[in-house]
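Module 6 notes. Inverse folding takes a fixed backbone as the condition and produces residue identities as the prediction. Think of it as a translation problem where the source language is geometry and the target language is the twenty amino acids. Below is one complete input and output pair. Work through it position by position during the lab.
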């Protein structure tokens, strides 16, 4: 089976992890701060806080922005469930903004309308979480303009997006948001096994997320309220969690980062090739906005409306092609049904879900494999 995605682990990566194993620190050593500083540098952000997953960092980000019981958070229905669950962890409510079918990202138009309505009834969200599907940046200029107008905070869920850019700024620069989140799960662009990072330019948000990842405890003398001296001393200042990244993970991440540029380049080469191979078959390839570079976590296509996606999915799988579907709209999950969401609530997201298909895309996918994927799909559609 040709998988839809796959990590690339080099000999250097293996040696990097081995050397951490032989070092004094398996966790809370030098690799995590090094990884954080490399991510801050890469994204041109002031602060990067590493944690054990993007999900944890989404939770930490919501808490840092003060999301609580009385608040609502809005996100895209076409995302992994973590983009919405993070608000529920804080006791807040979730609502969704329908997508633009051309980008599979939040529609700025739908956002504008929903904000105007919410403002009338005094039900504005505290935070908007914009998801960069497949690594293609959302229209952050529009989203941040609207958010500023209504005094709403913005988180970018760039779980798919490390290594990409938008209007000449790297994703994670937080030029258009308060916090950006990356995932380093193996299926994403580069990996730490499990892991996530939050970037921000606000020192208070960085501090708050960092405390959140380690029980709310600081060992930093300058941050302490007490003047107690002694090397044993630490202070718990908030209620945090153990969301820490280990040095083993960060060691792998530091090594993987050296391959990021070439991985993104390879993914883009393959994505461009997909576009030309699939041209003229009624297949729409979801591509990034102009003036942005995607890291192409996923190759998303929308099949012609008349065709039976289920049948095509099954035939592709029978041909040993690991196609996938990203994503089942979050609001259609049984858990969200219990919260009151219904089929028909976000029609563009639901229509997209009916005909979308994810084709294999990872750096080691060969042209031969890619030709086979495209020829098989075209034959099924003819
Ligand atoms: C993968 C993913 C997450 C969660 O990432 P983890 O690191 O696995 O917790 C969040 N949001 C989106 C859009 C994702 O694809």
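Target side of the pair, the amino acids:
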């Amino acid at each position: 089976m040709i998988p839809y995605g796959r990590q690339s682990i080099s000999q250097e990566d293996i040696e990097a992890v081995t050397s951490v194993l032989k070092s004094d620190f398996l966790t809370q050593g030098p690799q995590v701060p090094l990884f954080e500083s490399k991510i801050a540098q890469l994204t041109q952000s002031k602060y990067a806080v590493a944690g054990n997953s993007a999900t944890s960092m989404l939770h930490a980000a919501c808490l840092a922005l003060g999301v609580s019981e009385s608040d609502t958070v809005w996100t895209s229905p076409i995302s992994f469930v973590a983009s919405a669950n993070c608000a529920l962890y804080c006791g807040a409510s979730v609502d969704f903004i329908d997508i633009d079918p051309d980008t599979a990202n939040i529609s700025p138009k739908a956002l504008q309308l929903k904000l105007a309505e919410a403002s009338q009834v005094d039900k504005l969200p505290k935070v908007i979480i914009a998801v960069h599907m497949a690594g293609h940046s959302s229209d952050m200029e529009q989203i941040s303009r609207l958010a500023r107008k209504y005094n709403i905070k913005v988180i970018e869920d760039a779980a798919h997006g490390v290594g990409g850019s938008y209007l000449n700024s790297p994703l994670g620069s937080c030029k258009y948001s308060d916090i950006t989140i990356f995932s380093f799960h193996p299926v994403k662009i580069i990996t730490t096994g499990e892991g996530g990072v939050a970037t921000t330019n606000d020192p208070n948000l960085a501090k708050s997320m960092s405390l959140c990842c380690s029980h709310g405890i600081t060992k930093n003398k300058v941050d302490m309220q007490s003047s107690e001296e002694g090397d044993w001393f630490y202070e718990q200042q908030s209620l945090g969690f153990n969301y820490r990244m280990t040095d083993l993970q960060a060691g792998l991440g530091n090594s993987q980062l050296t391959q990021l540029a070439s991985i993104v380049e390879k993914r883009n080469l393959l994505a461009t090739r997909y576009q030309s191979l699939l041209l003229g078959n009624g297949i729409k390839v979801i591509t990034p906005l102009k003036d942005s570079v995607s890291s192409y976590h996923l190759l998303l296509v929308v099949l012609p409306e008349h065709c039976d996606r289920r049948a095509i999915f099954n035939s592709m799988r029978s041909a040993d092609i690991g196609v996938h579907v990203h994503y089942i709209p979050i609001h259609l999950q049984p858990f969200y049904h219990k919260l009151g969401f219904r089929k028909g609530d976000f029609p563009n997201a639901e229509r997209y879900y009916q005909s979308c298909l994810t084709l294999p895309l990872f750096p080691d996918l060969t042209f031969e494999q890619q030709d086979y994927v495209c020829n098989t799909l075209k034959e099924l559609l003819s």
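Reference fact for the lab report: The chain has two domains: 11-257, 261-381.
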